[in-house]
Amino acid sequence: MDGTLAIIGTGRLGEALLRGLLSSGWITPSQVVATARREERCAELADAHGVKATTDNRAAIEVADVVLLALKPQAMLGVVGAVADAFHPEQTVISVAAGTPTSALQDATPEGIPIVRVMTNTPVQVDEAMSVVSGGTHAGERDLALAEEIFSHVGRVVRMPEEHLDSVTALSGSGPAYFFLLAEAMIDAGILLGLPRDVSSELIIQTMVGSAKMLRDTGRHPVELREMVTSPGGTTIAAIRQLEASRVRAAFLDAIEAAKLRGEQLARGE
Ligand SMILES: NC(=O)C1=CN([C@@H]2O[C@H](COP(=O)(O)OP(=O)(O)OC[C@H]3O[C@@H](n4cnc5c(N)ncnc54)[C@H](OP(=O)(O)O)[C@@H]3O)[C@@H](O)[C@H]2O)C=CC1
Ligand SMILES: O=C(O)[C@@H]1CCC=N1
Question: Where is it predominantly found (predicted)?
Fold first, then answer.
């Protein structure tokens, strides 16, 4: 792209995105200003990526054509409000914070700033993110298309109305954590059965990758794919019986609903 990208709050997610955008060639280090709260973090970012890094959010926002807000939800409105006059309507502002609605960011900034909200996930680190883009009041087609372009460099992107973003956060935003927990539990099961940890890890990771590829690439329904594995009177149905007895399906429904409710609490500043 032409112009400057400011990343405000360059933590785990901001840095993963920065890495993906630099490696895709969409942006060069000289076009990026990254901010963090601590000087040591700034030095780390500058060393690792060759970008300008500063604790001065105002200076970073003033020079930017695109501002990416990657602060924690709890810090977002305070930090943005403190430098509100640095924003200008020619910029596109993109927030990746869970919970925080564009209306709250709109209220914290001057009138007319185009604000786009994106919910992405940590697979940005391997260019396999799932990102969902939605626009605030002043975000036009140009702003939404720009956000889609940015996140398409690190995975897949879809556009949805903002009313669905807390549900999206609960599903795909937090989703990697559920799969990692599942992997951890299955690796432990291998240990229980007497396999060495490295062997159990390799078996489970490759099984997860293979299963994910089948889901994505065959386009077949998960039920159909599961039935392919489940032989009559066999081993898989014995395991599934136990999973159903442990209410694993209900546990997922409850857990993901709890994540959505937490997003709604964050939006209320709780
Ligand atoms: N992690 C995830 O899976 C996902 C996270 N998100 C969202 O991304 C956002 C960031 O999350 P994550 O990267 O995990 O959080 P981190 O805590 O890793 O990153 C937050 C960053 O903000 C910096 N920061 C704090 N205060 C200021 C300030 N006043 N000025 C400048 N920088 C500041 C911190 O700097 P310092 O290090 O110096 O303290 C830190 O680098 C959150 O809003 C979260 O909801 C969205 C999707 C997925
Ligand atoms: O746990 C969180 O709040 C963030 C948002 C989605 C994933 N991590």
Answer: cytoplasm
pLDDT of residue 267 exceeding 90, the answer is no
Mutate to test the pocket of ligand 2, among 169, 178, 180, 260 (most ligand atoms within 8 A of CB): 169
231 burial type by CB count under 10 A (0-12 exposed, 13-18 middle, 19+ buried):
exposed
Q: What is the distance in A from the centroid of ligand 2 to the CA of 173?
A: 6
CATH number of 175-267: 1.10.3730.10
Residue 189 has pLDDT above 90, yes or no: yes
Does residue 98 line the site of ligand 2, with CB under 6 A? yes
For residue 247, the CA-to-ligand 2 centroid distance in Å is 25
pTM of the model: 0.94
Complex ipTM, two decimals? Answer: 0.96
Q: Which CATH architecture has domain 5-160?
A: 3-Layer(aba) Sandwich (3.40)
Structure tokens given for 93: 């502002």
Residues 6+ apart with CB under 8 A from 27: 1, 5, 21
